[in-house]
């Protein structure tokens, strides 16, 4: 039996992701489980790591991809909550079990500080793995650890600012985090505003989400989309913003925000000609809106389990744009980099 795995040999781009084959398969020690992976999904983070653009240290010769789903095929001594045959995913930050994220746990991220999931077999700390929803396929479940959990943490991670029925959530774009945020918001009885530069993407997302409680703004046609969002809410503004764009979208986010609302800082994928926000504008925007600024760094095992329970209860299905074969990883990276996708890009692991 062999173990095929991809490794990032340097930071020169997608060509640096090389397939390796080993005759040795790791065995679990005490408190560990061995996972046979069936699928992985990609995130923007995976792309910029390969290009040397990620702002945090990366393990040398790392196995890429934080997100994977598979089955337990061996358990180490002392493991009682998981057994052979369980369908699981390892948590993004392996040491973030519950409570507030620590600096040490922040450095335990898969596909960065630790080897990730783009492989056939891997050994992980059992306490850092969660059972995936029985209603999902491996491909669907592989989309959850980063994008879905980030959206869940944004909407439910601050106890006195959790999403409530009837509130309004604005999500930027049609990538994984934003689409999951929209799905969770609708399931909670909230309303959603989706921004995108593509009317085709807007139409496709609405086919998945439905028309009820879903409003949209094409920001290429309406650059001042913050004002438009306020108009759509009768001048009140939105309660939650999943801010994935960064400095070039933050100014409009403050414009769209209701007094006392929350901006959940998630990413920096914003492109285009928007003007960057200044430090003084951030300070004044926060004060004048009495805003909660929430930095979201994925989520804990505890939150992962809570999210999976909600996915089961509400029968939420991840939106997968395209599935690539394990041997075609470079094409998967290139496709996601092109930003053609809606929802998630998945890689099926060879069996």
The count of domains is: 2
> For the report, how would you describe the main beta sheet?
7 strands, mixed
Q: CATH H-level name of the largest domain... which superfamily?
A: Medium-chain alcohol dehydrogenases, catalytic domain
Helix coverage percent of residues?
25-40%
| Tally of helical runs | 11
Distance between the ends: 11 Å
What is the succession of H and E elements? EEEHEEHEEHHEHEHEHEHEHEHEHE
- Beta percentage is 25-35%
| Shape category | globular
Global Rg: 20 Å
Name the average pLDDT. Answer: 96
List low-confidence stretches.
none
> What is the CATH topology assignment of the largest domain?
Quinone Oxidoreductase, Chain A, domain 1
Q: What structural category do the secondary elements indicate?
A: alpha/beta
In the CATH hierarchy, what is the architecture of the largest domain at level 2? Alpha-Beta Complex
Number of strands: 15
CATH class of the largest domain: Alpha Beta
